[in-house]
Amino acid sequence: MSLNLECLEWINTNKSARLIKTLKKSKQITNNDLASSVYLLQIAPSKCSQSKLACLMSNQFVNIFDQNSLKSIHKFKGFDKSPTTTITEIGFYSKNDDLIFGCSDNGSLRCWDLRQNLSGENLDECINFKTDEEREFLTADINREDSYFIVGTNKNIDNALVYIFDIRMNGKYLHKLTESHSSDVTQVKFYPNTGSKFCSGSLDGLVCLYDLEQEPENTLKIPLDRNNDEEDETDSDEDPDLMDQVLNADSSIQKIGFLSSKCLEIDQIYAITYTNDLIVWDLQSHDVVYQVKNSNKKEVLGQNDSEDQEDEYFFDCFYMRPDLMAICKGNKSGGFKLLNGNDVLCDSLCDLNEASSKRMHRDVIRSSYWNGQNLYTAGEDGFLFKWKLIDKNTKSIDFDDKTKSNKRDLNEDMESDDEDNHFRAQSKRPNKNNNRKRSLNSRKK
Description:
Blueprint: E1 3-12, H1 17-26, H2 31-36, E2 40-45, E3 52-57, E4 62-66, E5 72-76, E6 87-92, E7 99-104, E8 108-113, E9 127-130, E10 137-142, E11 148-153, E12 160-166, E13 173-181, E14 185-190, E15 197-202, E16 206-211, E17 243-248, E18 253-259, E19 268-273, E20 278-282, E21 288-292, H3 294-301, H4 303-309, E22 312-321, E23 324-331, E24 336-340, E25 348-352, E26 365-370, E27 374-379, E28 383-391, E29 406-409, H5 417-427, H6 432-444
Parallel strand pairs: 1-29
Antiparallel strand pairs: 1-28, 2-3, 3-4, 4-5, 6-7, 7-8, 8-9, 10-11, 11-12, 12-13, 14-15, 15-16, 16-17, 18-19, 19-20, 20-21, 22-23, 23-24, 24-25, 26-27, 27-28
Helix pairs in contact: 3-4
């Protein structure tokens, strides 16, 4: 199968993106130049209506975009009172697209209501979860019933921690898991199809699977309506036996996610490592069903080609249809490929580079999102793109999205005239009046 990537929408959030890229090439970049550059760290889609995209920016602002047009809807800074605080991850509630949460390295998890102040950049949190321990909250997620949060922390003196918060418990954690990981927890995820199961990935190379409904004997039951203040003095039980399975990736985990090979229910989990490995496990048998090891690729490609591979990285994977898994592979220049999971070494579904398109990223892609119809990518160049996949031969992956391509730039001076002219030339339609004049002249002759 041969595919084309068509840019439907794009938006630039970084005024200095072009300057930074030029200075990098000329090796004249300074720390002040890097400090003024703003890039996108994460894409978080709304889960209820799939109408919004929240983007976490390196200047610690959260920018909310319309998912169809990429028009900016809202922009706020959730931790304005603490300028040194770094937001590490954001996400939407599962049942309410106006509620968004974020965790930070100051050891807090906060929630904001986007309806509070649509015109201002400062939002007061409506919920704030904290603990008494000095821990950085590195990653967080919420279950599909909006009843539980899970949070992964850094490694302090002892192991890294995984907290489970009950939203109804006024900031107190329900469980604290201390024996799951021996190094920083890089990502936690609730299963999309159940509210009780979740997983965590860590720098120790392990992916742990849990189930809150196991109801271990040593789990402390805390009533929802508590009138006795003494019960609030201590948090709930530590290290309940919630773990269901442990998967080993043999390398530090960078990203984890769920896959559905049947397009009906979630049946696989994948992990992307910092050594550029991709592993997929079956959730029922817990067996490895697919893997691409960076060391194996070097053996197949040879020494010269393997050196080029060091500039490339995996950043996502998803099923385009039940028999076709697409693997996203980017390079440091901003280009990326969609590889066929059935033959990742030889079969490239599409390749977006400077030779094939001028409308592309100019730096590393930090986050992506596939909604079943379109692919969204965000990167260190400050750009957010919306792509449409089109089959060159049969157009079987045309989802009848008739949205016209609109360019939006938050900073008008960013793009060069050459690139704008190139983009307009591609979308320019023939002039019907000129065609009519030509036909009349031919008849007169």
